[in-house]
Amino acid sequence: GQQVMQIPQYQHVQEGEDFTTYCNSSTTLSNIQWYKQRPGGHPVFLIQLVKSGEVKKQKRLTFQFGEAKKNSSLHITATQTTDVGTYFCAGCWDSNYQLIWGAGTKLIIKP
Amino acid sequence: EAQVTQNPRYLITVTGKKLTVTCSQNMNHEYMSWYRQDPGLGLRQIYYSMNVEVTDKGDVPEGYKVSRKEKRNFPLILESPSPNQTSLYFCASSLWWRDTEAFFGQGTRLTVV
């Protein structure tokens, strides 16, 4: 079945450093969504990317969808303590009725 | 307030004792689903429902049952829980299965001993 691979599993950064997480699919996605889960919380929708090569920004967050619609990335510039949590991508294909989730990348701010 | 409500938040039970986790949404969403979340594995879909009386298996359906008798409710049933079903469970709803954001409940932390 379809899978979405997400790396890295963890990323430790100093506050103020940048953070990036990557998602890859072996087959072309219909769209991809990104969610954030704070510690002890539930996933919260951030954004959806649909078009090939799409780039969207939300303040310090930049989301990209690859030209082939097989990969995506989330980049956070100058991390803050409020960014702590796990970031998930979730892919959607035309051929099924599910969102398939990546394993998530946990952002940890070093003290 | 638009929300997905799950109950209970925490549950400790013994092997083999049937249990139900309730899920209700007030957004008139068509699509509802159940996930389990385990460390390092992300969210894995257990069952989903496209509409009333329409349910289908997700990626990890073994040991679970669901029903969708009303649009707003989508309970998850464990007929005979086993320790390998110890996990964090989330119910989610969305307007449709694609191109719309999923709204999640607060989660149910289940421990089976």
Radius of gyration of chain B: 13 Å
Uncertain regions spanning at least 5 consecutive residues of chain A: none
Order of helices and strands of chain A: EEEEEEEEEEE
Number of strands of chain B: 11
Radius of gyration computed on alpha carbons of chain A: 13 Å
**Mean pLDDT across all amino acids of chain B:** 95
Distance between the termini of chain B: 36 Å
Number of helices of chain B: 0
Task: Name the biggest interface.
Answer: A-B, 24 and 25 residues
User: What portion of the residues of chain B fall into strands of 2 or more residues?
Assistant: over 45%
Q: Helix- and strand-based class of chain A?
A: mainly beta
Number of helices of chain A: 0
Report the structural category of chain B. Answer: mainly beta
Helix content of chain A: under 10%
Query: Low-confidence spans of chain B: pLDDT under 50, at least 5 residues?
Result: none
Fraction of helical residues of chain B: under 10%
Task: Round the mean pLDDT of chain A to the nearest integer and report it.
Answer: 95
Name the overall outline of chain A.
globular
Biggest β-sheet of chain B: count, sense, barrel? 7 strands, mixed
Quaternary assembly: heterodimer
Give me the secondary-structure topology:
The complex is a heterodimer of chains A (111) and B (113).
Chain A: E1 5-7, E2 10-14, E3 19-24, E4 31-37, E5 44-49, E6 55-58, E7 61-65, E8 71-76, E9 85-92, E10 99-101, E11 105-110
Parallel strand pairs in A: 2-11
Antiparallel strand pairs in A: 1-3, 3-8, 4-5, 4-9, 6-7, 7-8, 9-10, 9-11
Chain B: E1 4-7, E2 10-13, E3 19-25, E4 31-38, E5 42-51, E6 54-57, E7 65-66, E8 76-78, E9 87-94, E10 103-104, E11 108-112
Parallel strand pairs in B: 2-11
Antiparallel strand pairs in B: 1-3, 3-8, 4-5, 4-9, 5-6, 7-8, 9-10, 9-11
Keywords summarizing the entry:
heterodimer, A: 111 residues, mainly beta, five-stranded antiparallel β-sheet, 11 strands, globular, B: 113 residues, seven-stranded mixed β-sheet, four-stranded antiparallel β-sheet, 50% strand
